[in-house]
Amino acid sequence: MKAKILQERKQGYRDGYSHGYHLGLCEAVRRLIPVTAGPRRPLRLMYVPQGFDAIDAGVTEALTGLVSELIVCPAQSMLETAARESPEAVLVMNGLHVFPDDHLEQIAEIRRRGITTAIWFVDDPYFTKDTAVLCRHYDHVFTHELGCIEFYRSHGAESVHYLPLCVNPGMFNPRRTGPEYRYDIVFIGNAFFNRTELFDHLAPMFIRHRTLIVGGFWERLKTFDTLSPFIHKGFIPPGETANYYSGAKLVINIHRPWEGGQDNRNSYQIAGRSINPRTYEISACGAMQITDVREDLAKHYRPGYDMETFGSPEELESKIEYYLNHEKARQKFALRALRTTLQNHTFAARLPRLLDVINEARTRT
């Protein structure tokens, strides 16, 4: 027993040293990326959040530095706030979940007042039953999903633009964590059927390592009894998510299924082609990730350079075992992805495109 305690203590020292060394490298990468604000647009903009802080906080912070005046209001009082504040444009995030039943009536009245309206769909293509209706009621539609661009045009939206997701590096960043956040393998997300099928296959490997699975509905696993000691049930806030990413040796990323009836409202069966926000968030925390492949992954990162990919359970298991035993290789992937993310995939880097579309249209009218 004493020998085991000493061994665990030595391993803890080694892990702590390795974690601190990696954080130093991450800090060096962050200092190489200049923090520059783009030109401030002369625009009085009203932003309507969706109620998910991981995105809303990043959008709000970035817009504050990109427009002359930013007004933030809840979905329930869009029209009231627009009537009082007279913004030149309104940006709505998603238009789902927390929005009131009279959402579209409020937007219609805002437009009648001569105020430009825009919506950014960031849950595509999983709610096409709803977004197919919403898209027709806005002047500009932005979507992170490649597969939805022509879809929205076919449903009557005239100004449709591809705007990929990104990350708030103020919320997702490398940070010092305690031993309680340090795991060999981390996955954070709900138990969609493609994930449970994969994890049932990988269960014997997971139990050989320090593994953490976080999210809801993992009782769906056939191997739930085996894996339950490794599962943290339910939602955790973004700050906790970032802690686990920062402390992990490897983070798995698995996109949710897009087929209709599989825990989504994608009744139009639009195929998911674009990467999820988790791709950016893991990378921003200085962690190495292994992800399944979406079509636009290579537009934003270099597979095999910024991150590893997998196409089968066997490939994922093989790569996990390899990289858990090759620390320097893990660090290289993590540092490259961190640099790519901070250079190209923050809200401050992404939102100027959206603002330019709004401003260009306004100057033409």
Protein architecture, described:
There is one protein chain. With 365 residues, this protein is α/β, with parallel strands linked by helices. Helix content is 45%, strand content 15%. The chain contains 14 helices and 12 strands. The protein has helices at residues 2-32, 53-66, 78-85, 103-112, 128-134, 149-154, 193-206, 224-227, 238-247, 277-284, 297-300, 313-324, 327-344, 347-364; strands at residues 41-48, 67-72, 89-93, 116-121, 140-143, 160-162, 185-188, 211-215, 231-233, 250-253, 288-291, 308-309. The radius of gyration is 22 Å and the shape is globular.
Return the structural class.
alpha/beta
For the largest beta-sheet, the strand count, sense and barrel status come to: 6 strands, parallel
Based on CA inertia axes, which overall geometry fits? Answer: globular
Mean pLDDT: 94
Counting DSSP E segments of at least 2 residues, the number of strands comes to 12
What's the short story on this structure?
This protein is 45% helix and 15% strand. The chain has 365 residues and is an alpha/beta fold.
List the helices and strands and how they pair.
Elements: H1 2-32, E1 41-48, H2 53-66, E2 67-72, H3 78-85, E3 89-93, H4 103-112, E4 116-121, H5 128-134, E5 140-143, H6 149-154, E6 160-162, E7 185-188, H7 193-206, E8 211-215, H8 224-227, E9 231-233, H9 238-247, E10 250-253, H10 277-284, E11 288-291, H11 297-300, E12 308-309, H12 313-324, H13 327-344, H14 347-364
Parallel strand pairs: 1-2, 1-3, 3-4, 4-5, 5-6, 7-8, 7-10, 8-9, 10-11, 11-12
